[in-house]
Amino acid sequence: MLRERNKQYGTIKFVDISSDDYSPEENQGLDYKTVMGRIHAILSDGTVVTDVEAFRKLYEQVGLGWVYAITKYEPIATIAYSIYGVWAKYRLQITGRPPLEEVLETRRKSKADMCNDNSNCKI
After folding, report:
1. Strand pairing partners for 50?
2. Which of 18, 35, 64, 110 could pair with 59 as two cysteines, CB 3.0-4.6 Å apart?
3. CA distances, 79 to each of 10, 37, 39, 54, 55 (Å)
4. Pairing of strands 48-50, 40-42
5. Is the peptide bond before 75 cis (omega within 30 degrees of 0)?
6. How far apart are CA 75 and CA 77, in angstroms?
């Protein structure tokens, strides 16, 4: 939904973290494991925001800031961050995917297989 809405605004640059071209160096040093664990957004000034704050900033960028505006205020903020914490921890399993540890191991093995014949390959 954000990607579609962003077509009108052009304010969000989406990054495919699972792409072989993903570079932590180009993304404030955020490695795959870190960004798979919780949502991250990098603001135009380089500031990294996470969790509910990241959603709030993303929605603001496409004219929907009102959706998350209430999460700025207590006790809603505490509740929203708690709910997101549970979602972030279990979202892969909830959506029918393997747990993060298994995803990381599969990714590591895949990269190792691709690098078997390349002594300069970094895993």
Report:
1. 40
2. 64
3. 31, 19, 17, 16, 15
4. antiparallel
5. yes
6. 5
Phi, psi of 96 (to 5 degrees): 80, 20
Instruction: Using DSSP, state whether 49 is helix, strand or coil.
Output: strand
Closest Cα partner for 123 from 9, 20, 13? 20
Q: Kindly tell me the sign of the dihedral angle through the C-alpha atoms of 60, 80, 90, 102.
A: positive
Q: Report which of 2, 8, 7, 5 is spatially closest to residue 41, judged by C-alpha positions.
A: 2
pLDDT in tens, 74-103: 999 999 999 999 999 999 999 999 999 998
Check if the beta carbon of residue 56 is closer than 8 Å to that of residue 71: yes
Q: What pTM was computed for the model?
A: 0.82
**How far, in Å, are 39, 50, 54 from residue 45 at the CA level?**
18, 15, 14
